[in-house]
Write a structure and sequence with these properties.
Elements (H helix, E strand, L loop, with lengths): L1 H20 L7 E6 L11 E10 L9 E11 L3 E6 L9 H7 L4 E9 L1
Antiparallel strand pairs: 1-4, 2-3, 2-5
Length: 114
């Protein structure tokens, strides 16, 4: 009985490891930020058009944009919260990025106050 119990636990651990290794990349990623003017003061409350993009490097001149989406985002006391990937799905290349340990850079630009 103990050998059967031990074999079951081993199988359970191996199965869990395989399932974890094949886990899906999330479809959306929650992100919170603080929107401020050039003096560091929180912007006026309201809705803002924000564009988010992911890059494979820190320079928008020499590196590649991998993904981009624009959202109308409510901002209160400068604080906002978004679900990245809700307006534009992430590309199917995430598995490669996860396996390659590639560092990604998130850029956020603010459009007009709506």
């Amino acid at each position: 009985m103990n050998m059967l119990k031990s074999a079951f636990i081993t199988l359970l651990v191996l199965t869990t490891g395989v399932l974890a290794a094949n886990a899906e990349i999330p479809e959306m990623v929650s992100f919170q930020g603080f929107l401020a003017d050039s003096n560091g003061t929180a912007v006026e409350d309201g809705n803002y058009i924000l564009t988010f993009s992911l890059w494979d490097g820190a320079s928008d001149e020499t590196d590649n944009k991998l993904w981009e989406e624009t959202q109308v985002v409510p901002v209160q006391r400068g604080i906002y919260s978004v679900d990245l990937g809700s307006a534009e799905s992430f590309p199917n290349t995430w598995n490669c990025l996860r396996q390659c340990s590639t560092r990604l850079y998130l850029w956020c630009s603010c459009g007009v106050y709506v």
